[in-house]
Amino acid sequence: MHRRLLSLVVLALATAPALLAQAPEPKGGDRPRRERREAAPVELKNFTFREEKFHSAAINRDHPFGIYLPKGYDDAANRDKQWPVVIWLHGMWEDHLRFHQRGGAPVLDQCVGDGKLPPCIFVTANGGRTSMYLNRKDERWEDLITKDLLEHLSKNFRASDRREQRAIMGVSMGGMAALRIAFTKPELFGAVGAHSSAVFAEDPEQLPERMKGMAQRLGLDEEFGNPIQKEPWQKANPLCIANATDAKLLGTLRIYFDAGTADRLGFAAGNTLLHEALEKRKVPHTWRLIEGGGHSWGAGFQDQTLPYSFAVIGDLFAAKQATGSEPADKAADAPKPGK
Questions:
Q1: Angle between helices 104-113 and 301-323 (to 10 degrees)
Q2: Stated pTM of the model
Q3: What's the number of domains the chain is made of?
Q4: Most CB within 10 Å of its CB: which of 33, 107, 316, 320?
């Protein structure tokens, strides 16, 4: 009897974390995170990093973000310089510090040192742990990025407001959002880089059952319906947006995305569909299917992928800095969607 009781206690302790992880998230996914162990300091040669807050009207509160300022930012010689800007969107269950603490910062620093990416302002946004960066009824997470954060950077830092000097990037949930935002708001960003992105088939009926259940657990019924409805789903899915948007408009963007064949969430399939759609519509882009590549930070994606996406974005920034305008095959000012 005592042995059986002990076994039940051990089983309960072993399964408790998994059960807690399956508990419904608050709306917007901005759950207070558990205390994490202090990460080892990151030594940077080409940036300084700090954590700050700004007030976001979109979610009606002060909200944190991380910012890397380039070496020489405070030099007198650069006091009038407007710097290129990269916005990084984290994945699900993550926050604005994940990039810094899981190995992104050294790769960023090295790529600037190697000349793949010109010195720039690199910002790690905080989009809530499960928000999908969607505008919800009471928390507008996409507006937090595309309106409030960009406005804060323009007012408080010497951050360029020209789309050919702005890029948006992300991983997993953040990669999906980066593609969606870039495809629907090309007047804001001239380049997009996405890794292990949540891209799916156009018909939500083709979603795996566990994905359908996850949408409900994350409180997305108001956004997608229950069961998931086709119209709101297609407005959020980068594949659907790529097929519905004017190809000439998409062609004004520098587009990079990748996924691994061993992605534990199976996101390589949806990203392959996105590549095929863009290729069919003759939209220039860089696509990499990484043999044996896994999903996100735990698989070491940063070393396999970030240098490539930084190089694509660096080409845009360098071209503008060198010539003062976009290359001839790219529009200097992208038309607004619908025009």
A1: 40
A2: 0.83
A3: 1
A4: 316
Pair 102, 143: CB distance under 8 Å:
no
Residue 199 to residue 118: CA distance in whole angstroms: 29
Dist. CA 212–CA 227, nearest whole Å: 8
Identify whether 23 is part of a domain: no
| Domain annotation covers residue 12 | no
Report d(CA 94, CA 126) in Å as an integer: 8
Buried b (16+ CB within 10 A) or exposed e, 96-130: bbbbbbbbbbbbbbbbbeeebbbbbbbbbbbbbbb
- CA 201/CA 30 separation, integer angstroms: 28
Average pLDDT over residues 34-57: 82
Least confident of 76-80, 83-87, 134-138, 258-262: 134-138
| Contact (Cβ atoms closer than 8 angstroms) between residue 257 and residue 238 | no
Average pLDDT over the chain reads 84
Reply yes or no on whether the pLDDT at 328 is more than 60: no
Residues 6+ apart with CB under 8 A from 19: none
Q: Say if CB 121 and CB 159 are below 8 A apart.
A: yes
Q: Is residue 218 included in any domain, yes or no? A: no
* Phi, psi for 215 (deg, rounded to 5): -60, -40
Q: Which domain holds residue 74?
A: 39-202+237-321
Are 62 and 86 contacting, i.e. CB atoms less than 8 angstroms apart?
no
Please name which of 127, 145, 155 lies closest in space to residue 182, comparing C-alpha atoms. Answer: 145
Name the 3-class secondary structure at 255: strand
Contacts of 299 (CB under 8 A, 6+ apart): 260, 262, 293
Confidence band, pLDDT 50/70/90 cuts, at residue 319: confident
CA distance 326 to 323: 8
Asked whether the beta carbons of 94 and 129 are under 8 A apart, the reply is yes
Q: What is the CATH number of the domain that holds 147?
A: 3.40.50.1820
